[in-house]
Design brief:
By secondary structure, the protein is an alpha/beta fold. 27% of the residues lie in helices and 30% in strands. The strands form two sheets. It has a six-stranded mixed sheet with strand order 4-3-2-5-6-7. It has a three-stranded antiparallel sheet with strand order 1-9-8. Helix 2 crosses helix 3. The longest helix has 19 residues. The model has no long low-confidence stretch (mean pLDDT 93).
């Protein structure tokens, strides 16, 4: 999906397709430099990180394995319950591996903070976080993040894996969703 086909539902583009490609390549180069010669496991957080994880893994020169987790803190409501549930756990053993959590966006940081602690407790050699987007104004806890693609305002964004009601994930940019769509 490109911007033109969805522009009536969007208010502005925050990150273009070209900016996405350029920043992913820069982030991959930093990962290559830090993790050369190490056993690395990329852990994508479903569903939003799918696009970023695919692009990032293809841009890497180092050898990595990949796995996925799905987490929820919402249950059936729209307000976080504060209790993290694992909907899909890792298939891979992480003990002794260097784990890179690949996130689409960091909002409050609550779920990510819990995930870092959990993977560390499982015996990972190290746990780093690589996020494509971060909303500093939405943070409720301080989460150590190694690499961030872009800091963005605290607005509702879609595209590049981010969705509203399972729509807009395949949008080739990151854009602010017009409030009239979800009001």
């Amino acid at each position: 999906m490109n911007f033109e086909s969805a522009k009536s539902q969007l208010t502005k583009v925050l990150v273009t397709e070209e900016q996405i490609q350029s920043r992913v390549a820069e982030m991959a180069a930093e990962i290559d430099a830090k993790y050369e010669g190490k056993e690395v496991l990329l852990v994508g957080v479903l569903k939003g990180a799918i696009m970023f994880m695919a692009d990032l893994s293809r841009a890497l020169n180092i050898s990595t394995s990949m796995d996925w987790m799905a987490l929820s803190s919402y249950g059936s409501g729209t307000v976080s319950s504060g209790v993290i549930r694992i909907l899909k756990d890792l298939d891979a053993e992480i003990h002794g591996k260097h784990v890179i959590i690949v996130e689409d966006i960091i909002d409050s940081g609550l779920t990510l903070s819990w995930l870092q602690a959990t993977l560390t407790a499982r015996g990972a050699a190290s746990v780093d976080v690589v996020a494509f987007l971060r909303k500093p104004a939405a943070a409720k806890v301080e989460v150590p993040v190694w690499l961030v693609g872009y800091d963005i305002p605290n607005e509702f964004v879609v595209g590049y894996g981010l969705d509203y009601n399972e729509r807009y994930r395949s949008l080739n940019c990151v854009a602010v969703l017009d409030p009239k769509v979800y009001s």
